[in-house]
Amino acid sequence: MSITLATWNINSLRVRLEQVLAWLQEHKPDVLALQEIKVTDELFPVEVFTALGYHVAVLGQPTYNGVAILSRVPLKDVVAGIPDYDDPQKRVLAATVGELRVICVYVPNGASVDSEKYVYKLQWFDRLLAYVKNTLTAHPQTIILGDYNIAPEDRDVHDPVAWQGHALVSPKERACFEALLALGLSDTFRVLAPEDNSYTWWDYRMNGFKRNHGLRIDHILATPAVMARAERCVIDKLPRALDRPSDHTPVILQLSA
DNA sequence: ATGCCGCCCGTAGGGCGA
Predict the structure, then answer these.
(1) Which of A21, A145, A199, A227 is the one with CA 20 to 30 A from A188?
(2) CA at A10, C1' at B9: how many angstroms apart?
């Protein structure tokens, strides 16, 4: 018996609903964290997930952002957003699943390094860091999964030279990611599947997927207590090859029970 | 590269993503 958790930026739940349902039925994860659902709480189709045996926590928003957590067991102590941070952008959702504290994150994109959005990204990440630090003191078994919009190293980038100077790979963003790891978290893919040039996102434009022009920006981070149970972390590239795909593809972590 | 593609809202085309 094992526990499987996954993360997937689906870039619109309404457009990708059938793909998500099919993926759930095939992989039967215990937990699926979704980002960029781009739907309000009211329009989130809770019932179709309930019918598949999933409990749902949603933090929705019209048009942009929005996150959700699906779980086979009831979600407890749900916390929407980062406490004491009045951010109109809905990017963080936490819940307890069995013994695991799960935080679903959709880190801001950052646009370009000279933009206001980049400033927001760095400030936002400081808030996330403080929140995670607090969470870890109370929950030794914590998993933080989602779209971090940061490629941690050059080996996570198809063309590091072309990306130099852009958001998602800048030294300041990479320092943010390192600061998370410095809290004691592990990048589960790097530890369990350390092959280079493995990506979770490919640009829609210029045949990015066919040419494997990708970035590894979706991550599952885990505390030492979780790592002791971690058996496997894989990127499932298949959904990216479907018709009308998300530009991201799922990352899956398997734990021993 | 002010480009490419796709989604949202809303019904044209700009905002946004990465």
Answers:
(1) A21
(2) 19
pTM of the shown model = 0.98
Among A147, A187, A218, A247, which one carries the catalytic annotation?
A147
Taking the C-alpha atoms of residue A61 and residue A229, their distance in angstroms, rounded to an integer, is 35
Whether residue A148 lies in the annotated active site: no
From first to last of the 257 residues of chain A, give the pLDDT tens digit.
799 999 999 999 999 999 999 999 999 999 999 999 999 999 999 999 999 999 999 999 999 999 999 999 999 999 999 999 999 999 999 999 999 999 999 999 999 999 999 999 999 999 999 999 999 999 999 999 999 999 999 999 999 999 999 999 999 999 999 999 999 999 999 999 878 999 999 999 999 999 999 999 999 999 999 999 999 999 999 999 999 999 999 999 999 98
Amino acid letter, A119: V
Q: Among this protein's residues, is A106 annotated catalytic?
A: yes
Q: Exposure of A38 by Cβ count < 10 A (0-12 exposed, 13-18 middle, 19+ buried)?
A: buried
Measure A148 CA to B3 C1' (Å). Answer: 26
